[in-house]
Each structure stands twice: as structure tokens, then as C-alpha cells.
Amino acid sequence: MKCVLFLAVSCILLVIADSANECKLGISCLNKGVCKMLGGKSKGTCFQGVCCKRGRKHSCSMFGGECQSKNITCKTLRKASQTCGKRKKCCVWVH
């Protein structure tokens, strides 16, 4: 009887561990609401909810900025500008 219980618990733990690795490398398994809150995109389902592909850490739009041409005068966010490409920068409009 103890052997059957041990096997059942082991199988359940293996299923949980396997389902936690359902998402591709670099994509987290998160609750659907948390994924939306972080500005991520759902890329399929997993054990906890959805495989959530989040944007870059210093995304321009995440800071309320817009990618604009480098010749425009504006308040610039340097780190966030890296996500805009070589010929653009991240502009934040101050009112």
C-alpha cells in the first residue's frame, strides 16, 4: 500500500515539474492577469496559466515614451532608446 502511494505522489510531482517547463526558454509561465499587467503577450497555455512573452526590460513605451527620429528635440531616455533602433531615440513629452 505504501509503495502505491509513493508511486502516485511521484507521478503527480513529475507531471507538475514537466508542465512547469512547457514554455520556451526565456518565456515565463504566469497567471493570465499578471501577464497582461506586465504588458506581455500570451503564447499558449501552461500549468499556472499562460506562457507570457514580456517586452524588453527598458522598453520605450513602458516608460510612456515614443520612438522618434534622432533629430527631434525632446527629453530623451537613454536606456529605453536602445529598444528604438539605431536611427531613433525614446522621447518623453513633458507638459
What do you see in this structure?
- This is Carboxypeptidase inhibitor.
- With 95 residues, this protein is of the alpha+beta class.
- Among the domains are: 33 residues; 32 residues, Anthopleurin-A, CATH 2.20.20.
- The protein has a three-stranded antiparallel β-sheet with strand order 1-3-2.
- A hairpin with a 4-residue loop joins β2 and β3.
- The protein is elongated and about 75 Å long.
- The mean pLDDT is 77.
Tag the structure with descriptive keywords.
three-stranded antiparallel sheet
Compact description:
This protein is an alpha+beta fold and 95 residues long. The protein is built from three helices and six strands, in the order αβαββββαβ.
What is the SS-derived class? Answer: alpha+beta
Distance between the termini: 72 Å
Percent of residues in beta strands:
15-25%
Low-confidence stretches: none
Largest sheet: 3 strands, antiparallel
**Count of helical stretches:** 3
What is the element string, with H for helices and E for strands? HEHEEEEHE
The chain-level mean pLDDT equals 77
- Helix content range: 25-40%
What is the strand tally?
6
Placed side by side, the strands forming the largest sheet appear as 1-3-2
How would the global form be characterised? elongated
User: What is the alpha-carbon Rg in Å?
Assistant: 21 Å
Keywords: Signal
InterPro entries: Carboxypeptidase_inhibitor_I68, Myo_ane_neurotoxin_sf
Signal peptide: 1-19
Organism: Rhipicephalus appendiculatus (Brown ear tick)
